User: What shape does this take?
Amino acid sequence: MKTETTDVLIAGGGPVGLTAALCLQAHGIHSMVIEAKPRGVTHSYALALHPASLDLLESVGVLDDVLDGTLAVSRVVVQADGRRLASLPVAAQGARHPFLAVTGQDRLESALVRALEARGVHVRWNHRLARFQQHAEGLAAEIDELEERVIGYATARFDWMVRRTHSVDARYLIGADGHGSLVRRQLDIDFPEVAPAEHFAVFEFQVRGSLPDEAVLVLHPEGLAVLWPLPGGRARWSFAVHPRAEGGIGRDKDHEPVQIFGPGAFPALEEQLFERLLAERAPWFTAGVEHVYWRMLVRFERRLADAFGRGRVWLAGDAAHLTGPAGIQSMNVGLREARDLAEALSIDRQRGGTRALEAYQAHALDEWRRLLGLAGSVAVGPGAPKEIAGSVARVLSALPGSGRALAEMAGGLGLTLGG
Ligand SMILES: Cc1cc2nc3c(=O)[nH]c(=O)nc-3n(C[C@H](O)[C@H](O)[C@H](O)COP(=O)(O)OP(=O)(O)OC[C@H]3O[C@@H](n4cnc5c(N)ncnc54)[C@H](O)[C@@H]3O)c2cc1C
Assistant: This one.
């Protein structure tokens, strides 16, 4: 078996792994990106880039490509009982890009892959990290190259089989391999659930008429609902639901698109449920729904890894944290982790040791403890609407921002984030 070498092996070609490769390249560091899936199978899951992500993408020279065809959303409206409680700017004061760029995760990933290819970094699709072993100078990894084969007799079925196994020697490994991370599991890092999972019924549809370029966050006693306008006259409604309590979920299993995060199985959604949820939580939504493109029930867990890595092996993105979808925090904070990890790695690679990598971990853990409501304080001011005061944690996790932008949005609702 021939052994290849690279400075940094990146397991996972999702948005975080691809961004890590671009940032490493900007530091002059060679990386090899391996992705277990074939090229181009992602969907438009996370749908908006925070202003801070736009700064990052600009710094690695991909912003123009990413912005092509996106919709700029500069405000988020918070509603309860059909009343506007606030209309908040989504960017911190003085932000270089004072808007959220609404675009599909698949389009972001395609732009990142194009940028990498232009710089001579070619993602190895159908390559899955199988195992690795750390040693004093780095690590030895085994990678399974997968191929689709016809199996079965009479009725052909297709399955992915290991075609061959490659050996790679690397100085560092980045685990950007998503929520089921093999890298995290092999490091034996715990990934405890820190808050109950949430279920969202998500509907993406064509709008008859037009929508203002603003996101809408609806606070309702039954759960949050979030409306995003999308490019091309589309929109997405996401409703927090309790699957077992919803009689409308589950009678028709032929409507297949159900995605599951974590263990458990959930049945498919019916279109009538969409009408019912709209009537219940957003009766003011009068823009007609012309055609529903897809609908799915997604279970979002809230988990945080006990550590972001050790030695020569470090995590970023969903491999280290999971949260709900409303604030698009998982992916956007993950992109910044990719940048910070690349920088820490470049420092420690030059001077030896793991000081910068330890600092990366401390910062990331602190940020996620705050985002998940495990640390930090929130003072509710006298001007905060009562609907906000009654569901502070829920509202904070649904605001589309992090860091200073999140603090300023919270301030607009009468909340002060502290220590
Ligand atoms: C249905 C759905 C809807 C979502 N909606 C939202 C939303 O509205 N807002 C939001 O913020 N987020 C949303 N998310 C989450 C968002 O998609 C993730 O936060 C984001 O993709 C995380 O990026 P990542 O690169 O860390 O991980 P991923 O995108 O999961 O990428 C990890 C990659 O690693 C690959 N991989 C895994 N194991 C290996 C291995 N051993 N070797 C090589 N490759 C491997 C996987 O194939 C995968 O491509 C949604 C997710 C789903 C599934």
Summary: The CA atoms of residues 144 and 229 lie 41 Å apart. The chain has eleven helices and 21 strands. The two ends are 53 Å apart (CA to CA). The pocket of flavin-adenine dinucleotide is lined by residues 11-17, 34-37, 45-47, 105, 128-129, 176-178, 182, 259, 298, 317-318, 325, 328-331, 334 (CB under 6 Å).
